[in-house]
Queue: 4 jobs
Job 1
Amino acid sequence: MDLSSLLHVAISPVISTLQPNDPLELRVTVRNAATHGITLLKWNSPLDERAGKLGIFSARDIVDGTLLEGDVIMANRKLPPTREDLVCIEPGSEIEGQIKLLPLSFQKGRKYQVQGKWRWMSAWRGGLDNSLELVEKPEVTNSAECKTNVVEVEII
């Protein structure tokens, strides 16, 4: 079974009504629906501290469908990952984080739909005990595309 299918990722805007130049901040919640812990490599996912700069999240005008594209960075990573690059989510529990997206070209008087899309780079059953050894033998590598829910923000 693809472990990524047992992880449910939801986003919600910290503030859903913004001024055109306000940064968009999102609350991210990842819930483990499995009966066992799942350890994840956070890189290039909504759990990555750089998630708001990596192009994971997009905003689309609700009326005309225009996709807003912000600046995106490319992160070089040093292997092997450190313990801080990993997170274990216990069975039936969730973790939360908050991210700030790079500035987007929001237009006053418009509403936008925001969603995240990514692939978990590595995931495996169990905790962090032997996780650094398992990074090279994950149960999930380049999982199927994962998506968050869609949220709306209004620009006033």
Note: The longest helix spans residues 131-134.
Job 2
Amino acid sequence: MGILCRLLLDREVVQDHHLLHVIHDITSKVIDYIGGDGDEEVDCSLVYLVHRKLTQLTHQMTAIPALIYHSVQNPGLQLQLLRNLPCSSSQQSLLRRRLALAFFFHDPAYLSKDRQELLDMKAITRYLCQPRFIINSATNYPGLAAAIAILAIGLDNGDPPPMEATKEIITAFNNDLDMLAQRIKGMFTQIVDTGASQMRRTEAKEVLESFHSCLVYAVRTKQKPKGMMWEDDVGAEKQKLVMMNFIQRDNIVSNLDGSGV
């Protein structure tokens, strides 16, 4: 598996569509074979030969991701690997997301987390307040762009609450998501790019803006109404009361003007 991942980091391999297809096919079978999603009746002789020498213990599904995690340290190469990993099955997608979050947080513990425990919006927002994500004269813009793109892969669809979830759970999910989106917006609004002379800044800003749009329009369970300051019912009632007071005050002023006072 380590050799396959190294091949996916080779640009010449990636640009050769036939060869890339073959590597994707083998990699997919390896991941599904380990995760138990593969068809047992499919001829996976190559995969069997590769894995016959590996241990059959339960930690097998985390051993290979750990090898990949410790082998690739550069954020740019990490992103390239993640983009080229196959993700046509649930097991492949889970492996890809685990790797992405492990790369982003610099924490191999994410390699063994269950799907339900993989995402914590509040933890992501707090992590984005670390010094390496603060926009200043020392910002590494290529590294920042790669880190956010890796985060986007790890976040995927955000694991929204099920349709039968209570309104409180959905509201809490959206509120946490809004805080993350606000942090991302605060980052790209601080990037001052002056065109072609600062392409790295421009590229980083575009990655942040694209991720922000994904959060707001794709991951959120429903689009936030324009001008809505609060998400819950109590906040909505407060906003309604503010608007009613404003309208009443405006009507009083209009009546006074009409009466000539």
Note: The CA atoms of residues 91 and 168 lie 30 Å apart.
Job 3
Amino acid sequence: MLPAASKKRVLTEFFPSHSRKKARYTPPASSPVVSGDHLSSSHPTYPFPIPHLPTHIAEKLLESPLAEGDVVTDQPDLDLLYFQPFVPKTLENDFFEFLRSQLFFYRVQYKIKRGSIETQINTPRYTTVFGLDETSKFGPDGSIVESATSRPVAPSKYPTCAPRPIPQCLDELRRITELFTESTYNFCLVNYYANGADSISYHSDDERFLGPLPAIASFSLGAKRDFLMKHKPVPPKDGDAAPAEIKDAKPLKLPLASGDMVLMRGKTQANWLHSIPKRKGGESDKGRINITFRKVMVKGGTENYYQYNVGSGGVWKWDDKKKEMRPWQLKREDQ
């Protein structure tokens, strides 16, 4: 609990914990869980195949979530569903280690221009992304086709990126998440925070390509990190010199532990900002993976997410011997 002088509050102040269990997820017969130690997801846009979930992880994941999420709507424009945890505690570490070691990541650099000034941005975390907007889909052979007609998409539709399907190891989590959040998702963004120096500044996922009331499911695996939220200032009225603060809206601090999930929905993105600040010591240097599922409506969103989560840089992969992300290079026997 923070000192009384602090304005930030943790969620235990707002609601009691729940112990009610939800119905177990059962994959439909038309789309059974496919797992195994020798199967993998491949696509021409992947730098290397991504293994399927090992059987013990895939089976344990079907028990998620163990209890209902807590609804948080006690502040203006705030609508959260908070699971503590969503991923079972007996699974979260194995799931974290598997994803960190098997996914490919990028350390994206990009430039932004404000007026005549151009600034290079070095993304302070590792990122990767999978998915395709609602206007297109992946065919059985992995090619991109129009959603409405299933006809091949012209190469000119996505001139700045090469969309790729969500691999099985993340898609199984997506299916379960859809059931328990009553939302659908076509994009998966993954961030890896290597230590406390990796962060993301205050922002909101309020882009028009997500629609007016987007639902974003955000998972945390690995090190516990603070997730801060604050209400956006109200635009100034005529004659006011500066934006006004919302008096009834208090900043929040969610100490996200491994396996936790926060669903941000309704008016939350339009009115609240969130961040993962830098931290020193503690668990932060053990590494954290953040997985977010969201639904992109138009092709502009596809191009945006690949630009800022893949970019034009090289591929990084976890080196278990050195215990760090290292630049990945294609081995001769794989060429």
Note: The two ends are 54 Å apart (CA to CA).
Job 4
Amino acid sequence: MADKATSLDAIDDTELSGTAQPRSEPLTSVPSQKRNAFSELMSPKSKRHNVSSSEPPNPPTSLSSKYDRRDGLGAYIADPASFPPTQVIYHNPDFVVIHDLFPKATIHLLLLPRSPAKVRLHPFEAFDDPPFLSSVQLEAQKLRSLAAKELQRQLGKHSTQEQAREKALEPSPTQQQTQDEEPPPGRDWTSEIMVGIHAHPSMNHLHVHIISRDRHSPCLKHRKHYNSFSTPFFIPLDDFPLPEDDKRRHPGREGYLQADFVCWRCGRGFGNRFKELKGHLEEEFEAWKKI
């Protein structure tokens, strides 16, 4: 895979240069074993790095030099404990979960399998192994639920469906809910989380995206950013294993990244007008979070 970004890459050279930069100071507070999943992510006091910056968040070290550019995710897999909880959410012997350094939505995480036999395979090849695919799908399902809870924590106060449920659960001095009466179900936040891979991964190490569907982020800056999550270039993990004749195996031939813009929510077409699309996405985000 070429070192510089190509026409099939969903990210650019700036993002390739900004991957896997461990902090140079000691991180004694980060345990070497699996952390309490999302304990930092779901804490209101948790602080994340400034994702709007185009600069790498930390200075390079010997570890990041070894895992440079397209190999950047390898640093997280090799030594997740060297990263702070603002970058590594949790890790265990089989997986590492990190924040995407350049998130393309409100929630954007990466699930990194650690199997030495699979770690550098293209997902089309790695996920042809049924037992391995099942293990990744199971972990992704857990992470999707956790991501949904974090999305709820961030946006629940804006949601009409969520407010209706909270109101129904509040004790009322004038009206007592019967045991058989169920409160409104609230918003299905899990349905707002997408789980999948890119047909042409830009990074050499196997990774799965867990991302909220809103496409609302200052890091979503151009056509390839948007279309990589809004066309069949993004392949849901549940679609694997792919049939041999599945056209998504040929993203360059199908031209997914060069396609005209279509709003992910309302289906409105924007042709090549990215600036206009971005303004529309802002409006859609405000409406979407109020559902």
Note: The first strand starts at residue 88 and ends at 91.
